[in-house]
Amino acid sequence: MRIRLEKPLLISSFTAIDGRGPSVHIAGNACLVVFKASNVIIHGLRIHHCCSQAPSLVMDPDGKIMPLGQVDGDAIRLVTASKVWIDHNTLYECQDGLLDVTRGSTDITVSNNWFRDRSCFRATMIAIFGIRT
């Protein structure tokens, strides 16, 4: 199954996206954003060929229209997210990086994922900003 998103998919709290079984590809345009959400599982997906997106209006997880700024073209972007498990995914050939964890995101687990083909695009595959020690 191949899914082409016209705009970034905002993932809400208490959500599991499970791609086990069929080969699920999210590819060719916009990809996944976890924005101010917690208790999220992203499992078993192949996410690739994500492109940057101009600022636009999108529907938030509560069904309200909200403005979304420029999106870089990451496969998965976490912004002020917590308790997120990213497991058994394959991420590759995205315009920016593959995984961004930003703006105070906490309790993030990234396990058993395959980050591949980085030589074709930017050298940064995974970006983690705002870490406090």
Automatic annotation (TrEMBL):
<keyword id="KW-0134">Cell wall</keyword>
<feature type="domain" description="Pectate lyase">
    <location>
        <begin position="1"/>
        <end position="133"/>
    </location>
</feature>
<dbReference type="InterPro" id="IPR002022">
    <property type="entry name" value="Pec_lyase"/>
</dbReference>
<comment type="pathway">
    <text>Glycan metabolism; pectin degradation; 2-dehydro-3-deoxy-D-gluconate from pectin: step 2/5.</text>
</comment>
<dbReference type="GO" id="GO:0030570">
    <property type="term" value="F:pectate lyase activity"/>
</dbReference>
<comment type="similarity">
    <text>Belongs to the polysaccharide lyase 1 family.</text>
</comment>
<dbReference type="InterPro" id="IPR045032">
    <property type="entry name" value="PEL"/>
</dbReference>
<keyword id="KW-0456">Lyase</keyword>
<keyword id="KW-0106">Calcium</keyword>
<dbReference type="InterPro" id="IPR012334">
    <property type="entry name" value="Pectin_lyas_fold"/>
</dbReference>
<dbReference type="Pfam" id="PF00544">
    <property type="entry name" value="Pectate_lyase_4"/>
</dbReference>
<keyword id="KW-0964">Secreted</keyword>
<protein>
    <recommendedName>
        <fullName>Pectate lyase</fullName>
        <ecNumber>4.2.2.2</ecNumber>
    </recommendedName>
</protein>
<dbReference type="InterPro" id="IPR011050">
    <property type="entry name" value="Pectin_lyase_fold/virulence"/>
</dbReference>
<dbReference type="GO" id="GO:0045490">
    <property type="term" value="P:pectin catabolic process"/>
</dbReference>
<keyword id="KW-0732">Signal</keyword>
<dbReference type="GO" id="GO:0046872">
    <property type="term" value="F:metal ion binding"/>
</dbReference>
<keyword id="KW-0479">Metal-binding</keyword>
<dbReference type="InterPro" id="IPR018082">
    <property type="entry name" value="AmbAllergen"/>
</dbReference>
